[in-house]
Amino acid sequence: MAALKWEDLPHYTYEDYKQWEGDWELIGGVAYAMAPAPVKIHQKLMGDIYSQIREKLLACENCEVLFEEDWKVSEDTVFRPDVAVVCNDDNENFITKTPEVIFEILSPSTARRDEGLKFEMYAAEGVKYYVLVYPNELVAKVYRNGGEGFRKVGDFRRETVSFERLVCDFAFDFDALFSRFR
């Protein structure tokens, strides 16, 4: 039996992706099935992150906070970040501009992709801040992209972090995010 080569795998496009049922991401033409419905803590954290940022950005007419919205990077790459801050993007169907900030809430089934593949690709696409939220540890790892890839800002449990040099800067209170789960 001949060994399967990378070139032999199907290469999907956005047109294929639009036809699929269920939750998927498309990265470099490779389809990635999303995990089953997230556990409750994942959903609660996502809602709380969204609500806190939305409140901070109410006065910002150029930016919006979105959750689980498709970000079409190219014809063969579509991400679906848990929470994204997007500015100056008028497309109503999906995100077309690089998000300024992305929050991903890790689960055992997504951790490798979130910490590896997405980490590298989000940095290459120019995402300014990437926040990895670890629900079991109640900690968030914040990374800032200074043009040379992501550099770690720190690990946060009870601190407030300022997200700066954005279209609309905002501060995020990790103590408020995690307090109800302690």
TrEMBL record:
InterPro entries: Nuclease_put_TT1808, Restrct_endonuc-II-like, Uma2. Residues 15-150 form the Putative restriction endonuclease domain. This is Putative restriction endonuclease domain-containing protein. It comes from Hydrogenimonas cancrithermarum.
